[in-house]
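Need tokens for this chain, all 55 residues.
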Amino acid sequence: MTGLSSILIVVGLFLAGGVYSFWKQKMSGSFIVLLGLASVMCLVAGVMRIQGLWD
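Here are the structure tokens for all 55 residues:
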């Protein structure tokens, strides 16, 4: 696992934690959706780099 893929996965998990936290606080729905999309994109990019699809 390379450094960049590790960073992407950690950032994705951090953003996912933010989604959960903001959802529990009943924050704005559009902000939660935007944060969720960013989290999913980071996680997918990290996993794709691990699998070597972007070499």
